[in-house]
Design a protein that fits this description.
By secondary structure, this protein is of the alpha/beta class. Helices cover 28% and strands 12% of the residues. Helix 4 links the parallel strand 4 and strand 5.
């Protein structure tokens, strides 16, 4: 039979797509609001239709121009922007009564569900940050559950750590999943648990060969030029540790030190790749932050996948993505379920 088909909403740099395509799925349509993500998409997968637009403007008539109503979409995937849910930095309330703090990104899941209702794929998979579950005392999560119930889809959710699935990174994310074909779904089985028998993938395995590579703009491997004060700070950070703030000389002290003042350990998974002010955490043995390519390796993007735009946008493209290896685990599981479904027909 032909390839199973997916539509990807809020596709970002395309990490979700890569994982599914590795398992033989065909992307029928991809969409995102960000212009640099559009450039990434056209650079790496120019033959796949991409719409750069506000998801609110993605009408059924427009969908029909790209998705033939006579074909069946097997899986709808996507990760609505999560900044309003994140536990890192200032979290913005989604309560419309708090107008000054209102962040419309907190309600984009409704648009995902609207498209789900229209396309009626057999399965759906939606990713977001773990903080969504408790945001606004759980009210957003309750609304998500109630809205999914109205779709007629079986609905479930699970928090998964990407390190358990072969990603060299501690990254906890919530996945909402379900189907309308009567399958009792379970999350994919993990392959790693940190034991000697099933060890985690490590930072050293992922990026060790890049340490002595010269700057390469086309490869997204360009080290930031850190100032002298930060270089002195970095030199004080032990491998796998953070800056000893209470032991700093006065000239190196400041009020706030974030994840960019934590050093990774070569023999352990990475911290979560969250782009800060144009920087990632510190390299295990070099006194500099990770390059975009090193962060992409930790996120399990292939080396021939190119990120474009200003460096800060490249950092966001990498850090916000679903790790392709994580997505591939879901894709393999869903392919098995689809094989059984079509095999029973």
């Amino acid at each position: 039979m032909s390839k199973y088909k997916i539509v990807d909403l809020f596709s970002g740099a395309g990490g979700f797509q890569i994982g599914f395509e590795r398992e033989g799925f065909e992307t029928i349509l991809s969409t995102d609001f960000d212009e640099d993500c559009e450039k990434v998409h056209k650079k790496n997968r120019p033959d796949i239709p991409f719409l750069r637009m506000d998801i609110h403007d993605l009408s059924s008539e427009l969908i029909d121009k790209y998705v033939d109503p006579n074909i069946n979409i097997d899986v709808l995937i996507g990760g609505p922007p999560c900044q309003g849910f994140s536990t890192i930095g200032k979290r913005i309330s989604s309560d419309p009564d708090k107008r000054k703090a209102f962040d419309p990104r907190n309600t984009l899941f409704r648009e995902y569900i609207r498209v789900l209702n229209y396309l009626k794929p057999k399965f759906f998979l939606m990713e977001n940050v773990q903080g969504l579950l408790t945001r606004d005392k759980g009210r957003i999560f309750e609304e998500i559950k109630e809205t999914f119930k109205k779709t007629g889809y079986e609905f479930n959710y699970v928090i998964l750590n990407a390190a358990d699935y072969g990603v060299p990174q501690i990254r906890n994310r919530v996945f909402f999943f379900g189907n309308r074909v009567g399958v009792k779904m379970e999350p994919p089985s993990p392959c790693c648990d940190g034991t000697d028998e099933h060890p985690y993938k490590t930072v050293g395995e992922a990026i060790g060969d890049l340490a002595d590579l010269s700057d390469d703009l086309e490869f997204n491997h360009v080290a930031l030029k850190h100032g002298e004060i930060n270089l002195r700070r970095y030199a004080l950070i032990p491998e796998g540790g953070r800056l000893p703030e209470d032991q700093l000389p006065e000239e190196l002290y400041r009020k706030n030190f974030g994840n960019t003042f934590k050093r990774l350990h070569r023999d352990k998974p990475s911290l979560t790749m969250v782009p800060g002010h144009n920087a990632f955490p510190i390299h295990p043995w070099l006194n500099r932050s990770l390059t975009v390519r090193e962060a992409a390796r930790i996120q399990t993007f292939p080396d021939d996948y190119v990120f474009v735009g200003p460096r800060q946008k490249q950092c966001m493209q990498v850090g916000n993505a679903v790790p392709p290896v994580m997505a591939q685990c879901w894709a393999k599981y869903l392919k098995e379920e689809l094989d059984k479904y079509y095999g029973d027909k």
